[in-house]
Amino acid sequence: MTTTPFPPPTAKQPASQPAKSQPRLPARLHADTVTLGYDSRTIATGLSVAIPDGAFTVIVGPNACGKSTLLRALSRLLRPQAGRVILDGGDIAGLAAREVARRLGLLPQSSIAPEGITVAELVARGRYPHQSFLRQWSKADEAAVAAAMQATGIAALSGRLVDELSGGQRQRVWIAMVLAQQTPILLLDEPTTFLDMAHQIELMELLADLNTEGRTIVAVLHDLNQACRYATHLIAMKDGAVAAEGEPSAIVSAQLIEEVFGLPVLVIPDPVSGRPLIVPKGRPGPAPGLAAARAAPHPPVPAAAGGTPRPAAPGASPQIPEPHHD
Hints:
With about 325 residues, the protein is α/β, with parallel strands linked by helices. It contains 10 helices and 12 strands. The strands form 3 sheets. The protein has a 6-stranded mixed sheet with strand order 6-7-8-3-9-10, sandwiched between helices. β11 and β12 (about 275-280) form a beta hairpin. α4 runs antiparallel to α5. The longest helix is centred in the middle third of the chain and has 16 residues, at about 195-210.
C-alpha cells in the first residue's frame, strides 16, 4: 500500500493566497431530504445538502442551527429519522463501519482519550480501518502516523501521555489521528477549538493544502472570516435549513449575515486575501430585557421616619431602607 506524505509546514501556501475555485465533480456525499433530531426534539426537516467533491466546504450558522447535527448525520454517527445520507451512490447506513472509516474521517466536537495512552498510540489508532487479519501493522502505517504528527507539529510529543497535554495540544493530537486515516473525505466539527491564533491559521493552511491535493474537506466553523478566507464552498444554516450556499465571494453580504446571525455588519474586502471580511457594528440593541428594565419607572427613595419621600434619580437603583427598631 502506497501512501502520500503530508507536505512539510514550510511548503504551505501562504495565507495571502485566496482559496481557488476547483472543478466540481459529482457529490460523493450528500443528505437527501433528511429529518434530523434527538429523541422527540427535531432539529431539521426535509434537509438536502450536497457536499461538492474536491471542495473545501465550511458550514456556518448561529448556535443550535443544526451544523453539528448535519455533520453527525453525514458521518453516520446520527441516523436520520427520515430520508437518507448517500455515500458513493449508496445509503451510508448500509455500509460497514470499517468501510465508512476508509472513505471518510471524522473529528467530532469533543473526544475523550483512553486513560494512560500516549500521543503516538492515539494517532496510530487512525490506521485501524486499514488493519485486518491478513494485513497487520506495516511500514506504510508507520509512515502515515509519522506524517500526520509532523503535519500537526506534535512529533516531539509522541511519547507523552495525552492526559498531560494542554487543550490545544490534545486537539492537534486528535486532528493527527484523523489525518492518519488518509481518507479522501475529512469531516471536522469546530477543529480550531482550543487552538491559539497561530495554530488556528496553521491548521487551516494544512486543510487548504490537503484540499489542493484532492481531498474533500468539510468543516464546521464559528469564525466567519476564517470560513470566508479558506472555503471554496460555504453553507450558511439557520433554524435547521440552508439559508445560502456557494462560493463565499458570491454569497456573503451584510444582508445575509444579519438575516442568519441577527448582527449588523460591514462586509469589506480582506486586505490580505481579497475575500469577504466581516466587521461587526455591534449588537442590534440592548440585551433582552435590559431596555425594558431601564424604561420602567423607579420607585421613590424612602426618606427617614417622618420625612417626605424623594423621587429616585433617573437610572438609579431603588434604595431599601434599613429596618427601624422601636
